[in-house]
């Protein structure tokens, strides 16, 4: 057997690694659906070429031998470190991963909505932010938080995102249940975390076709002030999140994963600061900075117009509620912490005023809750870190909305 035979075999192995390393294997390794970042792809193809050349030349070139001997100790050290990360440092699943795994596995892909909550979930419990936020989840056969309620007999449906759903709250603490207590009447909660006007329109279309509520209310939040996301993009997001957080795999415990997560955090930092009332406020809290510049406002308004037109066709009384972000409620604190972000508040205020005007013009009842929340800004109405209403915020929202709904139903 030739002395060069082991090097030849090793070289072929390195060359095969180079041929195998591509955006598809990288996506599998990093729990992604795909990689399309030009910089990452450029580095990847350069690494591929280097490994192939190095592997083929390893039995013949002295520099290739020296490189192998130089890299071998580093590879061994890296393997030892990885084993320590996987089996010692990260043996137990951290709270933040448990939250994301539990959160994303409660959803499933849906062709018409992008994703939705899984039906018939029972006793799903998880917490994050060191226990400040807790989720208690039970869903009915349609995948909503309406166990025991009759869709056929209910006069009122409420559509929206996490504020309607009641993120971080039990159903009893949610704004919708507080409304039920004030009005002494059940309300069908069709809120799902992460939804925007794309899903609001589709849910309205589906549920007013199959059921016959007298009133349908919408909750619009500041992060709805962007170009409505296509359903296909929601499908891709859900698929990727299930890949990333579906289970606490060996890769999720590795140094490679820790470094990749740190890189993402540095690349896309959430700029935030602590207000004097101990609430965490975020610089870029919701509205698109390009909302008024690239036609995003027209797309949002067009979606709302379609919903209002459909409501008239189906003889449904529509009510639109505009929900305030805590950055907008605690406006002076936000401007003190982020004086260069006044434009974000201005976009939010102008967009809400425009949507209210649009609704009034089309005979739709609308209420912006922002002024009501600002009057109570001496109280802590949101969770300290999380963006959602706490129990006091949910109760205040219900108190502001109840008279409007009563008046709408009485007409």
What does this structure look like?
By secondary structure, the chain is an alpha/beta fold. It folds into two domains: 5-89, no CATH class; 97-410, Rossmann fold (3-Layer(aba) Sandwich). It is 52% helix and 12% strand. It is built from 16 helices and eleven strands. The protein has helices at 5-20, 23-29, 38-57, 62-89, 95-105, 162-165, 175-183, 197-210, 231-245, 255-267, 296-313, 326-329, 331-337, 342-361, 370-375, 391-410; strands at residues 107-110, 114-117, 124-128, 133-137, 156-160, 188-191, 215-220, 272-274, 280-282, 317-322, 365-368. The strands form four sheets. A five-stranded parallel beta sheet has the order 6-5-7-10-11, with helices on both faces. A two-stranded antiparallel sheet has the order 1-2. The radius of gyration is 26 Å and the shape is elongated.
CATH architecture tag of the largest domain: 3-Layer(aba) Sandwich
- Structural class, please? alpha/beta
CATH homologous superfamily designation of the largest domain: SGNH hydrolase
Rg, please?
26 Å
Series of secondary-structure elements, N-terminal to C-terminal: HHHHHEEEEEHHEHEHHEEHEHHHEHH
Low-confidence stretches: none
Average of per-residue pLDDT values: 88
Bin the strand percentage.
5-15%
Major beta-sheet overview: 5 strands, parallel
- The tally of structural domains comes to 2
The CATH C-level name of the largest domain is: Alpha Beta
Sequence of strands across the biggest β-sheet? 6-5-7-10-11
Number of helices: 16
Question: What is the overall silhouette?
Answer: elongated
Query: Helicity, in percent?
Result: 40-55%
CATH topology of the largest domain: Rossmann fold
Q: Count all strands and give the number.
A: 11
Distance between the termini: 95 Å
